[in-house]
Amino acid sequence: MMHDRGKTPLRATRLAVFAAASSMALLLSTGLSFAQTAVKWLHLETVPAQVKMWEDIAAKYESEHPGVDVQMQFLENEAFKAKLPTLLQSDDAPHFFYSWGGGVLKQQSETGALMDLTEAMRADGGGWEKSYNPAALKGLTFDDRIYAVPFKMGTISFFYNKELFKKAGLKAEDIKTWDSFLAAVNTLKEAGITPIAGGGGDKWPLHFYWSYLVMRNGGQAVFEAAKNNEGEGFQHPAIIKAGEQLAELGKLEPFQGGYLGATWPQTLGVFGDGKAAMVLSFEDTETNQRENAGDGKGLAPENIGRFAFPIVEGGAGAVTDTLGGLNGWAVTKNAPPEALDFLRYLTNAENERMMAGIGMLIPVAVGAQDGVTDPLMRGAADQLAASTWHQNYFDQDLGPSVGRVVNDISVEIIAGQMSSEEGVQAIQEALELE
C-alpha cells in the first residue's frame, strides 16, 4: 500500500499518542514533574546531626509536594555575614535565609530585599502568626510589619567543666556577683587551669561580656536610651563602668594562649578538649563543643554545668535579664509561594519538637516546648521563661555598622588596647553617623 510521505497512517498516529500518554503516566507515577519549583534555603549550620534533621524534614515535605525541590545552600558564619548583602541584590539570592533579627534585619527590610510577611502570617485570622511565642516575633517585627518567620530563641550563659571546678575547689553556685566571678578566675589560674575559652578571632564572641556588663550595670532603661541616642547615649556612666570592668577581666589574662586569633569553632574545641574551665556561650553548647572537640566526643554531658551571667552589685540590671537570640528565617522579595509554605511546615510544632529533642534549639512554636529534654537546654529554656528582659545580641540589635564597632571595641578593651571611654566614644560616633 502506498501513502504520501507527508502523512502518517491512522494506526501509527494512535500508537504514537498511546506511547506518549504511557510515558507521561510513567513519569508522573515515579513522582517526577516537568514543572518543579526550586526553594533555595541558605543556612550556616555546621553540626551534621542538625543538618541531617533538616534534610529529613525537607525530604518528607518534598514527598508530600512532588512539584517542590528544596535546595539547601551553606555558607560559613563569617562568609555568610560578608557575602549576604551582595547576594541579596543579585540574581542568585536565596529564597530564605537565617536571620538574627534586630537592626540588621531592619536594615535589610529597608533595602527592599525582603518580603513583608505580615499579610501572609495574619491571613485567616492570624493562625500562622499565633502559632509562635509572641516574644519570638518581637525582634523580627518593625513598625508592626513582620520580616522573618520565627525559628528559635536562645540565651547566652556560662558553661563550666565540673571536673576542673572540683579540682580548683570551686562551686558554681557561689558565683553570684561580678566580683565573685573575678575571684573564681584567679582561683582557677592559681590551680594551673585556664579559666575561660575565648574567641577573639571572630570578635563577636567577646562582645557578650561587654553586652552583659552593660545590661547588669545600666539595666534596660539605660540601654534603650543609649540605643535611641537619648540623654548621655553610650557615654552614660553605667556603660563606661561596664567597659572598665571588662578591662579588669582582661588584665587577669583569663583566656587560652592565642585567644585573639581563635575562631568560634576553635574556642568551642578548647572547652570541649578540657583545656579551659568555662565558656560564655549559646544554649546548644553541649552539642557544639562535642562537634568541635579534637576527639569528636568532647566533654560528657554530665560533666558540664551552666550558670547565669553574674550580677553587678549596685547595678540596675537583674540576674533574670537575659541576652540571646531571636532567630528566624527572612524571605527574599522574589521567593515563590512554595517557600512560605515550606517555612510554615519547617517551623510547625511537630518539627520544632523534633529539633528540640536532639538539643538543636529552644522552640518558638506553641506546643513544642515539651520537646526540650536535654537538662542543659531545659535550664536555658527555664531561664528564658523567667526572663524579665530578653535582649537581642547587641551587634545584631544595633545594626551592622554600630554592631561592628561594638565587636571591635569589646576585643580591644579586653586586650588592653583601648580604654572604656574611648570605646563608648567610638560607638557613639558610629551611632550618630547612622
Structure in words:
The chain has 434 residues and is α/β, with parallel strands linked by helices. Helix content is 48%, strand content 13%. Helix 9 packs across helix 17, helix 10 crosses helix 18 (420-432) and helix 11 (264-272) packs across helix 12 (285-292). The longest helix has 24 residues, at 204-227. The model is unreliable at 1-34 (pLDDT under 50).
Write the layout of secondary structure elements.
Elements lengths: L9 H20 L7 E7 L4 H17 L3 E7 L2 H12 L7 E4 L2 H9 L7 H9 L7 H5 L2 E2 L2 E2 L1 E6 L3 E5 H7 L9 H13 L13 H24 L9 H15 L12 H9 L5 E4 L3 H8 L11 E4 L13 E4 L1 E6 L5 H10 L2 H9 L4 E2 L11 H11 L3 E4 L1 H4 L2 H15 L5 H13 L2
Parallel strand pairs: 1-2, 1-3, 10-13
Antiparallel strand pairs: 3-11, 4-5, 6-11, 6-12, 7-8, 7-9
Feature tags:
D-Maltodextrin-Binding Protein, domain 2; 6-stranded mixed β-sheet; 18 helices; 2 domains; signal; 3-stranded antiparallel β-sheet; alpha/beta; 13 strands; 434 residues
CATH level 3 topology of the largest domain = D-Maltodextrin-Binding Protein, domain 2
State the strand order across the main sheet: 2-1-3-11-6-12
Number of domains: 2
Query: For the record, what is the CATH homologous superfamily label of the largest domain?
Result: Periplasmic binding protein-like II
Task: Work out the number of β strands.
Answer: 13
The 3D shape can be described as globular
The CATH architecture of the largest domain: 3-Layer(aba) Sandwich
Strand percentage, roughly? 5-15%
| The CATH C-level class name of the largest domain | Alpha Beta
Helix content estimate:
40-55%
Estimate the mean pLDDT confidence: 91
Report the C-alpha radius of gyration, rounded: 26 Å
